[in-house]
Amino acid sequence: xxxxxxxxxxxxxxxxxxxxxxxxxxxxxxxxxxxxxxxxxxxxxxxxxxxxxxxxxxxxxxxxxxxxxxxxxxxxxxxxxxxxxxxxxxxxxxxxxxxxxxxxxxxxxxxxxxxxxxxxxxxxxxxxxxxxxxxxxxxxxxxxxxxxxxxxxxxxxxxxxxxxxxxxxxxxxxxxxxxxxxxxxxxxxxxxxxxxxxxxxxxxxxxxxxxxxxxxxxxxxxxxxxxxxxxxxxxxxxxxxxxxxxxxxxxxxxxxxxxxxxxxxxxxxxxxxxxxxxxxxxxxxxxxxxxxxxxxxxxxxxxxxxxxxxxxxxxxxxxxxxxxxxxxxxxxxxxxxxxxxxxxxxxx
Amino acid sequence: xxxxxxxxxxxxxxxxxxxxxxxxxxxxxxxxxxxxxxxxxxxxxxxxxxxxxxxxxxxxxxxxxxxxxxxxxxxxxxxxxxxxxxxxxxxxxxxxxxxxxxxxxxxxxxxxxxxxxxxxxxxxxxxxxxxxxxxxxxxxxxxxxxxxxxxxxxxxxxxxxxxxxxxxxxxxxxxxxxxxxxxxxxxxxxxxxxxxxxxxxxxxxxxxxxxxxxxxxxxxxxxxxxxxxxxxxxxxxxxxxxxxxxxxxxxxxxxxxxxxxxxxxxxxxxxxxxxxxxxxxxxxxxxxxxxxxxxxxxxxxxxxxxxxxxxxxxxxxxxxxxxxxxxxxxxxxxxxxxxxxxxxxxxx
Amino acid sequence: xxxxxxxxxxxxxxxxxxxxxxxxxxxxxxxxxxxxxxxxxxxxxxxxxxxxxxxxxxxxxxxxxxxxxxxxxxxxxxxxxxxxxxxxxxxxxxxxxxxxxxxxxxxxxxxxxxxxxxxxxxxxxxxxxxxxxxxxxxxxxxxxxxxxxxxxxxxxxxxxxxxxxxxxxxxxxxxxxxxxxxxxxxxxxxxxxxxxxxxxxxxxxxxxxxxxxxxxxxxxxxxxxxxxxxxxxxxxxxxxxxxxxxxxxxxxxxxxxxxxxxxxxxxxxxxxxxxxxxxxxxxxxxxxxxxxxxxxxxxxxxxxxxxxxxxxxxxxxxxxxxxxxxxxxxxxxxxxxxxxxxxxxxxx
Amino acid sequence: xxxxxxxxxxxxxxxxxxxxxxxxxxxxxxxxxxxxxxxxxxxxxxxxxxxxxxxxxxxxxxxxxxxxxxxxxxxxxxxxxxxxxxxxxxxxxxxxxxxxxxxxxxxxxxxxxxxxxxxxxxxxxxxxxxxxxxxxxxxxxxxxxxxxxxxxxxxxxxxxxxxxxxxxxxxxxxxxxxxxxxxxxxxxxxxxxxxxxxxxxxxxxxxxxxxxxxxxxxxxxxxxxxxxxxxxxxxxxxxxxxxxxxxxxxxxxxxxxxxxxxxxxxxxxxxxxxxxxxxxxxxxxxxxxxxxxxxxxxxxxxxxxxxxxxxxxxxxxxxxxxxxxxxxxxxxxxxxxxxxxxxxxxxx
Lengths: 348, 348, 348, 348
Hints:
Rossmann fold, Dihydrodipicolinate Reductase, domain 2, 14 strands
């Protein structure tokens, strides 16, 4: 079978680099171009040293982009929406990894992002990029907007319970703990190693933009509220969402097991992790580094109607590049797991 | 002035070692004996290598304990309550750092600890050991029960708002992130470095025993619920409590500032940390290593009545040995800050 | 093509687990049995949680072992030599990952290991397991003894220069920095997270047993001395060897480049890493986690005849399981890179 | 007793901040001014958040400096030598923490720093700032040049053996492992947390400038060579020097003990750490965070004349601010330990 020609716009960042790594080993894809304005003409392994000996590809400028089958956009916020017409001319299929086309409602976008969307007319052309919720749409889609990392972990952890209408609408509290790679590859005062090491840093206690995606995907016609906070910890890769939700009716853990099985038992990248013994009784992001898994566990509070749902991902994989590749596979009719088989390391 | 003679029962653990370090530099205390059954006869610096050159003290057996002015108990769970009569004969004043005498209600004790208390008759003899809430009682007390680390951070963060009756009674969610020293100095499968490094481990999503202390101290006659979870992270020392509470009335941040000032402006070990710029905008436990501070910050959610209160301590200091020494100072009429002046390191 | 039937003896440790991970994804191997006496009957993913959903295999007892094509031994020190006859009956080909059959000389074995070898008659039956030095022998071998991790990094870094006779025989100093996974999966007082975190621990300043392998492989008939030290750092996976050697003649860096190219330009798992700019100018073990690469760099001291050679590996991969699989591929005529294509993650 | 008035030039960096922390708690010093051009007019606790509640001092510009008793210079390389006349007018005593006045020989300075010294006439006015070697000179000195961190650990580890003439002159190899705070407080691409975490980075395998100080202090009239390398590890604070030296005569460990005792038994900040059992058998920098100790241990190789000397410090304390304060105490006739009593934390 002929390989699909794919290109990555904005490939010098962490998400772009991760996507490139995956695509270089994908049997049905041929990486044609990868762009970076800062590194045009340089070998990609100078920026992504894990790709030494894996490729002799060099960065191009976005102005040099040629037509391809699928175009991945890994650009900074607002760049995709401003240049989307150019990109649509270059490729029939686009997967955007930025936040630009995640929200379906321009007013919500403005509420959370603080400015008008440049192309609200296109918002409904993009399928929201979590396959476990939108697989059938993806199969027919030309445009996919990859989900945020915090949103992915939260939504996948909570989806079955919200879909079943079991959750009190205004009480859910989500606390995400996340590593430093989420902040991208630009050094700043706060990312300086002596200041960033050993931190437990409340970097976004309220008003995190990913909240909007979570609400969008979990509402199902209801008016829901989600109370979201994010804390940065001393980790490079990995994200754990601890979700405290309150059940409308009295469910036991075996009932909850059944619900998760109903939704996820056939999902290749979801694992329910809930052990009674051992060290890894609940999801643990370090086991997921480099994998596309979302591990989900839960614990019912015996003293109240609270259910704690724990959800872990690699923020650069299931939270970004891996999930984008999963969408790519679905969109193009490949086995969904292609190029995403790496099981993770232990210990790490 | 003559120094008080003090001894520490159970001084080979992390809490006992930290307390010993503090007492060795306390101008009004003379450490008479420190006990350890496993290390009887050995130099304490063999177990606490930071005390090399600081002391030539050796461990004694508990059976060799002599009378002293103040006895500190740093024993495993249930040991204090079982041997309390013996200890009371040895010293007129006791500070217990275990959980044995924290709860005032034997029924609550049984609910959370799963067994009957050995000496419920003594529960009301002990003052609960957070000075900011019980300073006046401490001045007259002979027996103090030092508070749990998770409870200290949570209670201090929430106290002014609960005391003022501003918090919805059943909605507060507390998420504590904590380092490995909280688990004590005994190696186990889960504390093995390759398994414990890089973790974001939900070790107690529900039913943490410290919840009982938090409820006890924040109830003020009302029936309140607190939804508590604890997550272990890759840190040795330090604890951050992220408390999500829901305000009964619409308060702005400046109103909340006033309330915290009212309660804490004269407190030597509480700092309100809430900056608009810079890296350290909210409390950060790494800055507190070795200090007795509890740093508290907050952020009001503009989109709901949620207030996020962030509270940081060193779990071995304000969460254990430091707070016990603060109580010791109060109990004996010393300046409360004596021996607790270390300001912390930056960077670390 | 029919798959080879392989079994792993001692598969509950880190090396055995890593090997199992690799073999599960190897297209020419079928994992038949994996043994563990402590976990007999349990799912392997209970011990190796990264293998959840990857396999439903359970541990067997060594007494249940059946015949297979290739047997991997991941046993503690001395176990292989004591039971080697049993294992030889079970499989025509054996790859031993312990230190038991690495040294060719029983006297040297006794000098470094402190006891007589149980089966000195077999020492010359095993090929020393570094393919870059012994590939041709491996192609014909039935028995391979996988090299030590510290030895692998040191030998590969130094081999071309010693082979060319360029190094002063008695002056080389090797300083290895290594992560905690090297110590295996058994928790002990020294591996307890609060004690093992943040360390720079001189755990073996002299007399490290791997020194014997290094001397054996680099002697080429001469009488050489290697001054080896090992320091444990706060890392789980990864090893960096800094080798200080003294050149017999005045070579410039371009001459040294040529020598490394001569030996390694066709090697699939060796990369010469020596950049003039950027962050990753020299080999960096964190980029190698999960890969089979050995990255080698060097720097000539302008002020003396010292050459600093820097060599990095993942101690569980090129330092253990990966290199064993590479040997397996060679021994069985497969493409040497099969199952070892993972390029590593960045950032991590 | 009246307090000495002291000021710090360049107090916004890590060394300046650490020195300020120490001076604020020094009973014989009053901090008059601290300068920073970037932060003039701002509270120092905005930059050094550990000093919240400890001081209300604000940064001044260097142009606002007033006369004082002792002036500390914590400026970037070359600034001290260029402005030294101005500083000498402001204070009769100066302690310079930069590298500007460490070397006694202008030619050596040029060899290692690559440019002519601006004021070679002043090089012999400064006492090299390691008290253990130059205490008597310090007592009479007006100008002290504080030693480099790598040099301090190396020199203190090796001094007794070199002074006794026991070391082969051209063979010593020193490998220093160091944390990120050594690089200062300016963020750069290489200090970005995702890139700097988990590293074992050979950042200076040859030609480290501190080599010149080591040679200067250990020569004792002989022509010696020291082979120095530095590796950055994932640690914020702390430095371990592993020194491999070769003895001219056959000494046993008990002989070496005697030599170290002869030189260091009365030293308040040197501890010989060499245990036969336990976890902390050799010096460990993490135990020294915040302390002024230099811990020294050693191990004789039974198979050769190599002696491995292991030396640990906190690079910001004994490697910078602490040692400068020790010099300040000596220079001014105070008890040498004043303000430096902090024993360090365990665990950390």
